[in-house]
Amino acid sequence: MLTSGAILRRGMAFLLLGTVLTGPLGAQTIFTFGGYVKFDALYSHYENGDVPETSPLRDIHFPAAIPVGGSSDVFADLDFHVKESRFNFEARNTLADKPIRGFVELDFLLSAQGNTRVSNSFSPRLRHFFLEWGKLLFGQTWSTFMVVIVPEDLDFGGAADGFIFVRQPQVRFSTGNWQFALENPENTFDAYQTGTRILDRAGTIPDLVARYNVQTDRLTWSVAGMFRLLTHEYTNAAGTVERSAKPGFGFTTGGLLRVGRQNDLRFQASAGKGLGRYAAFNFVNAGWLDANDDITARSSVLGWIGYRHWWNERWRSNVNISGVTAQNDAAVSGGTVNRTAWSISANILYSPAPPLTFGLELMRGYRQLEDRTDGSFGRLQFSAKWDFRYSTADDE
């Protein structure tokens, strides 16, 4: 028997989620509303230059934004924000004897609209919006090339230097332990000698990804491979539009190994030529252009490892280390392109009840350019987070 409150909540869920449903509405449709509220307070000390308020480094660890080259270490900032807080909506049903699911999620991180002067009004940002029907997925979500196991850092960027991190539109087919996907092509290159980033949408072949997943009682593990065609469209000296192309590829593996009753070891390792935007928040571009606009794919290697230890049922800690390094040709791409970055973090988390967590975290990050100019920063972060979830299935 449904209570009046449950009936009201169900009616509200129908109204909120009706736009993402496929198929007739009915009692068999399950609606879920969830997300979390998160407050972050970050004290950051930059040793080689100041960071503007609009920089992503003010909100999360963003390796490519670490200031370099300065000789003063007096730069420090205290930032409060709730931008990582998020909402998601989900609807599940059955269509043509196959399960169907619609999912959408929003947060406020990296919003280009808003400021902290008076109202702290920041725009919502689309994270996920996809449908799954049987073995098929259509829409925007985590890349199939990304192993979605990340360290339990308070900083959303966390061990960003070491992991593959991409959300994008795709078509995915899953069968058994295998997944295959066609994903959105987007290329980034270093301009000749200046290292300036060029965004090139000339791609006509989707990025191709294959992945194999393993799940046992103690191990969650995945390995994936990707092939992509790096393409650049340009106008030659005669005024004719031409196109250059080079293949790119990558491999990644990662997982979680359960240690003892509650503890776990998390890891990821990746390498390739032309990874570009897939790696470390686009720390380096997929390749560089020479004087003739020909492409050279850039090689890069990255990885991270983390350990989570439960002190008791309410207290736990995480220690994580990550890094990325890339190959450059300074004579062509210039000396100001990124070469390497690493970070290390440790935290203590307290959960009086599973949905509620308070934590304190220390982080140290480092960035170096090809000409060996470098910079580093330290961060102390406090966070308070409440996870929430409501499903109409709970009223059945």
Summarize the structure in words.
It contains two helices and 21 strands. By secondary structure, it is mainly β. A 16-stranded antiparallel barrel has the order 1-3-4-5-6-7-8-11-12-13-14-17-18-19-20-21. A four-stranded mixed β-sheet has the order 10-9-15-16, with no helix packed on it. The longest helix has 14 residues, at 4-17. The protein starts with a helix and ends in a 5-residue tail after the last strand. Residues 1-27 have low confidence and may be disordered.
Outline the secondary-structure elements.
Layout: H1 4-17, E1 30-46, E2 75-81, E3 86-95, E4 98-107, E5 125-133, E6 136-142, E7 167-175, E8 178-183, E9 187-190, E10 197-200, E11 207-215, E12 219-235, E13 241-259, E14 263-273, E15 287-289, E16 295-297, E17 299-310, E18 315-326, H2 330-333, E19 338-353, E20 356-369, E21 374-391
Parallel strand pairs: 9-15
Antiparallel strand pairs: 1-2, 1-3, 1-21, 3-4, 4-5, 5-6, 6-7, 7-8, 8-11, 9-10, 11-12, 12-13, 13-14, 14-17, 15-16, 17-18, 18-19, 19-20, 20-21
Order of helices and strands: HEEEEEEEEEEEEEEEEEEHEEE
Question: What Rg, in angstroms, do the CA atoms define?
Answer: 23 Å
The tally of beta strands, per DSSP, is 21
What characterizes the major β-sheet?
A: 16 strands, antiparallel, barrel
Distance between the termini: 8 Å
Mass-distribution shape: globular
Range of strand content: over 45%
Count of discrete alpha- or pi-helical segments spanning 4 or more residues: 2
Low-pLDDT segments: 1-27
Structural class: mainly beta
Q: Residue share in helices?
A: under 10%
Q: Please tell me the overall pLDDT.
A: 91
Strand order of the largest sheet: 1-3-4-5-6-7-8-11-12-13-14-17-18-19-20-21
